[in-house]
Specification:
single chain; 138 residues; alpha+beta; Arc Repressor Mutant; Alpha-Beta Plaits; 2 domains; 4 helices; 42% helix; Arc_rbn_hlx_hlx; DNA-binding; nickel; Acetolactate_synth/TF_NikR_C
Length: 138
């Protein structure tokens, strides 16, 4: 084993692993490990960007979630009320029988928006959260 490499074990739902394997095969990765390293690097880069942003921004928070997970819809509504001072509007889209997409337009201090992102990201049933910073307020 190469020095500096640590072997880990990860438990994943079968459907998630199957989809991941399909994608890495399509993209031509030589191994699952390399694809996981690439995914982790991407996650770290996005996290560092989120942490480095400061000041006032305008953007959209895109949230993909499984609405069958008990309480997730109510939690998202409650959070939007709790953060009403930075949320200008939201749009809810039913993607299929299981998944919904919420687009939340935000405007305000990045520090406050980060708190919202973290709370939504940690919610059970939320599958993906992406903050797209459209412009910095001048």
């Amino acid at each position: 084993m190469e020095e500096g490499i640590t072997r880990i074990g990860v438990s994943l739902p079968k459907n998630l692993l199957d989809e991941f394997d399909r994608i890495i095969s399509t993209r031509g990765y030589s191994s699952r490990s390399e694809a996981i390293r690439d995914a982790i690097r991407t996650y770290i880069t996005e996290y560092r960007w989120l942490e480095s942003e400061k000041g006032e921004i305008v953007g959209v928070l895109v949230v993909l979630y499984d609405h069958h997970v008990k309480g997730v819809s109510d939690l998202l509504i409650d959070l939007q009320h709790d953060f009403h001072e930075i949320i200008t509007s939201s749009t809810h889209i039913h993607l299929n029988e299981d998944q919904c997409l919420e687009m939340i337009l935000v405007k305000g201090k990045m520090e406050r928006i980060k708190v919202l992102v973290d709370k939504i990201s940690a919610a059970r049933g939320v599958m993906n959260v992406k903050l797209i910073s459209a412009v910095k307020k001048v």
